[in-house]
Amino acid sequence: MRQYLPLKLPAGGPVKLPPGIIPAQVTDGSYGEEPGGIVSRGDVTFEYNMNGLFEEGKFVLQTVHICDLPEVALQNGLQIYNWQKNVWADITPEKKVLSGAEVEQYIVSLSGEDLANSLSKEKRLRLKLSGEDKKPKTILPPALAIEGVTQ
Length: 151
Known about the structure:
Low-confidence stretches: none
Oligomer: single chain
CATH class: Mainly Beta
Order of helices and strands: EEEEHEEEEHEEE
């Protein structure tokens, strides 16, 4: 069971939302849902709806970080939907070391024109994980971390 609660953002300053605040929804692919994640049997498409952040028009989105990428995305590929051109585009995660820890993580950061092209008018973002083989794999959806400012 899922419940969506309204998000109150502090006024007049920078806002950083950690990964997991914006839920992923599977919109396409050969998959099944289990308590441990999504069982994928090939390509699977996730959609993130960020429209709730913009309802009052007081939040300006600056950067989206795509984090917690499953191994299948690193091995077989990751694509993002370009809403301006109506095409899927390959994206390559960068390896980053998290500050203050000896943990490496692959992250995709979108800002500026890349971010504008990746968001629909309704503030939706779509990611496709490629599944080269048809063997079932349990994966967790990538998580989004958000940075912006409130007015």
